[in-house]
Amino acid sequence: MEYSNSHYEGNHISEELEKGTVFKIYPAAFNIVWGKDERYWKLPQEKEDPATLVQVSWLEVTGWCDKVEKGTKYEVKFKVKLTPDSFGFNELPLYFMVKSGSKNLWKKIYLTKDANVESNGSYLVPNNLTITTTDSPHEDSKLCFGLYEVWSGKWKGGLIIQEVIIQKKD
């Protein structure tokens, strides 16, 4: 019997917008649980295309950037949008995570209540998800990030993930 994995593994490519300062990561670079199953996700066809959640009860999207500098503070922002027929995001919080080495930070955000809405209807979340990358020679210094809602067991859909922006902070 042949085993087929229904999880999508991204290409892990990050685009450097400003040398060592700003990075943009598109959904084609993300790992998406259930991402290969068209009942649950519409995956990007081109590099800059979004990933669109059709429906899942287990939302887990992760990625990383390995171009960051050791011992440097970065802010991570997720740019997402909701479709007109989205569901589950008014009553369920999303959990955003950043990690570098053994340090990690979690933020719980109710997307439709707590996130900043841009003029085009996109949400830029979360506010102040900032971490200083490890400077330990014994730890991996890449900056990992994730978006989760895996604890409720409730269905949610209509989330469009556009990009993740990682920006160096002073």
UniProtKB/TrEMBL annotation:
This is Protein PHLOEM PROTEIN 2-LIKE A9-like. InterPro entries: PP2-like, PP2-like/Lectin. It comes from Solanum bulbocastanum. It holds the Pfam family PP2. One of its GO terms (molecular function) is carbohydrate binding. It comes from the Eukaryota.
